[in-house]
Amino acid sequence: MKTLSHAADKAELLRRLQAVSPDSPAKWGRMSAHQMICHVTDSFRGPLKEKAMSIAPGWHFRPLMKWFALSAPFPWPKNLGTLPEMDQQQGGTPPADFLADVTNLEAAVERFSTRGRDYAWPPHPIFVTLSLDEWMRWGYLHMDHHLRQFGA
What we know:
By secondary structure, the chain is an all-alpha fold. 45% of the residues lie in helices and 0% in strands. The longest helix has 18 residues, at 132-149. The radius of gyration is 14 Å and the shape is globular.
């Protein structure tokens, strides 16, 4: 399984990121490419404790959903919602300069992927408890999901 723990998998995502431009059209969803860049950055900044993130209400089947999201052999579904603080039309970081925002995302990926096993990971908004390996898998899948959203 691909994960941000593997240098080759991380390099693949960062290479694909370079294919996204401000005018890349979305294949689904309501975000622009620039908003997506900021959303993915915010989504890494949450677990890094650089941005507040809440726990989604409900989700009574969290263990089953966690297994499905991190282990299923097919892409995540399209048009899933997000937390208000990670939504660029609500409380997310607003897009500014595209190239600077891409650089910020690259730096967030690096900070996220180099946390060691001694790092005290906060609760995930949906899955609550994730191990380091699960966080790295989630990080890969989340970024992959949004790069596919913009054809990268």
